[in-house]
Amino acid sequence: MKRFAALYDRLDRTTATNAKLAALVDYFRQAPAADAAWAVRFLTGRRFKRLVNTRELREWTVAASGLPPWLVEDSYEHVGDLAETMHLLLPDAQQDQPTPTLHALIKQQIQPLRQLDDEARQQRVTELWSSLSGSERFLLNKILTGGFRVGVSKRLVTRALAEVAGVDSSLIAHRLMGRWQATPDFFQRLIAPASDDDLDQATPYPFFLASPLEDEPETLGEAGEWQAEWKWDGIRAQLIRRGGQTFIWSRGEELMEGRFPEIEAAAETLPDGSVLDGEIMAWRDGQPLPFAVLQKRIGRKKPGPKTLQTAPVAFLAYDCLEQDAEDLRDQPLRERMTALDQVLHKACGLHRSECIAFDDWQALPELKAQSRERGVEGIMLKHLASPYQVGRKRGDWWKWKVEPYTFDGVLIYAQPGHGRRSGLFTDYTFAVHDGNELVPVAKAYSGLTQAEIDRLDRWIRNHTRERFGPVRSVEPVHVFELAFEGIQASPRHKSGIAMRFPRIHRWREDLTVADADRLDDLKKLLPDTQR
Amino acid sequence: MKKGLLYPDAGGLYCPAGDFWIDPLKPVPRAIITHAHADHARSGNAEVFAATPGIPVLDHRVGGADALSACDYGQPFELGQARVTLFPAGHILGSATVRIETGDGIWGVSGDFKRAPDPTCAPFEPFACDTWLTECTFGLPVYRWQDTTEVIDEIIDWWQGCRDQQRPAVLFCYALGKAQRVLAELHGRAEGPVWLHGAMQPLTDCYRAQGLDLIETRPVSAAEKGYRFAGDLIMAPPSAAGSPWMRRFPKHGSGFVSGWMRIRGNRRRRGYDRGFVLSDHADWPALIQTAQDMGARRVITIHGNGEALSGFLREQGIDSEAWNLRQTLRQA
Description:
The complex is a heterodimer. In chain A, a hairpin with a 2-residue loop joins strand 4 (235-242) and strand 5. Chain A is an alpha+beta fold. Chain A contains 20 helices and 23 strands. Chain A is globular. In chain A, helix 2 (17-30) crosses helix 10. Chain A folds into three domains: 2-145, Orthogonal Bundle (DNA ligase i, domain 1); 208-401, DNA ligase/mRNA capping enzyme (D-amino Acid Aminotransferase, Chain A, domain 1), CATH 3.30.470; 405-530, CATH 2.40.50.140. Chain B is of the alpha/beta class. Chain B has two domains: 7-142 and 281-331, Metallo-beta-lactamase, Chain A, CATH 3.60.15.10; 148-276, 3-Layer(aba) Sandwich (Rossmann fold). In chain B, strand 16 (253-257), helix 5 (264-270) and strand 17 (274-276) form a beta-alpha-beta unit. The two termini of chain B are 16 Å apart. The interface between A and B is medium-sized, with 29 and 23 residues.
């Protein structure tokens, strides 16, 4: 634990990427494999299924600190991070306690928490709090609360491991995909030289991600070298059929077992040794259904017959990464398209995401303009000679999205953010006019510059009307232009609508509250069936 | 609000018995200024009373030497019907707390204060009072300070680390008080010179002129053109961060010395490499300890968000409330 805490301190005490990389490389070279495996797990953002809930942690903090519960809550609101708040409130640890290794701490102290009764868990955690000091205790709390964002990206960890292993970082990225246990053995395989047979058959390939196209498509060169596809608004997924088994992975590397039985059934007809990249869509009669329909399926682990009936899904394949157990990722897209056709030809119930025929770049804007009508987000442009790369690499795959909708809303509530934004009012609620009232329609967190956030934060503090816990209502004065991707009827919201991905476009200081939009106008954007 | 020796009005904190304001927010006929920080000391007052060791800095900051009356710590003087005594607040050089006595009782008022030792100023001196008006800048239990020595060790280690890599080490802190406290702590523990931003120079001279021992300093403006400050320590106010002035220090490491650095998010959002938790304010335990040391039956918080402290003290059986002076000013 000492070594891991020292790594954390090194990472936390610099903003330079190279310094962070060097710290990671040093750690992975020196740490015992048993510890390093856990470090990889935490630093790549994999969390434990909750071992203790946050309510318990707060109660135990109250008990261990001797502070009244409301003061612990006030402190949390101020700090914006529960793990850190607990660490700052707890009494200093007793000095000179022997510190267990990271591996021992997790195996002997943290994982067994799940089996203990409430009292024993509190006792165990309180003992740990009084035996660990400084960053060690902060990290313990991070492990207990689940979130582990310490200013290191998964990509940086991958680069560091690649340097230690002396292999390409795309191989490390591949080895880090899918399911694995944080064992010494796993860490040894992770940093082993390249070989063919070190991957589990469920292991997905790292996803290749498109970059937003900021210029006009003409800037990409010869139109004939590019393939255009509709950009589906569903769940990006990788469908694996190997060894007589099917695995569906989300882009967040979640195994979506049992959630989409109709896709799993169709996948059984795929030839063995096939891996497809595509999109899970709510789909009926060859047409996409709104994203809100898909949402009914997202949280559902075992959908019942009614859900399957009202929210049917389909897999739209647009790339073939493996055919006959052969990795095709280095082949040009053109070849992979042929493979895709061959694989799908033998299967039934899986759809091909058709390419858009276009002769020259001039034809595309008009097609793109049909996006909303077709229920898609825009157009994908892929170079026909492109290999299937790892992560977001610019140049070969572009997403050309339709302009978002926008509206002008009035800031009415604010609440403090978390993490980097703790202690600053950065979570805002915006309203529009409905008769003589202002009704909240959207919450947004992003889109302002730091200078604007600071200025707005000061203003909010000085113009608070009422407080409801951490939330403050403010005088309705400031108008913001917000962008969003879509709108749905929602009986759960007072306004009767729910927006998809609202974010701040700009602070409209030139507008007054009277200039803000009206709810009726927003409702005109609802799909016809919901109006 | 209960009637008392002081109440908030449009000018700030007003004492009717003595017809004066403490740290007024706008120009008034007669003011007591607790210390020279900008949120306490403003110019334009006709008559100003301040602690003797604070006069040079105050004169430098707000001017008006003619209006300034120097008051020795612990020496009572009369203003109208009030008997006033200034006591050391331990915040910065020449900072004071105010004891006000009338036939109606004794009130104590803090500008800002701390209880941790500071080589640049006289230590805080408690005195008995009925009502204690306390600052509350760090009024939550998450704020607990470590020993100054440990923090100075951290600063020296970090500076040494930058020196090993031949990089400049730029340390940001408030130009008045914190900068000189760090320079005094470094005196005898590290080898100078330390380079100073222009805003820190005259204030540091003020401190030296009063006989305080600080590590050797040089103004950055005195460095030769093209000098790269490799391995040197530079001190600058936070306003210099991100300014073109910083281009003089290629590949520098950055640190910020402040009580706010206790919270990780505060540091990360400002993009400093290191945060050194050293404050010139009382931490939570010291705020509570001081409320007890003053023996006050009633405690009123005045600067900062005092709701938590006053709520906590009420639970401890002390009559307590939070005043928001700025709000009062706006409403007036």
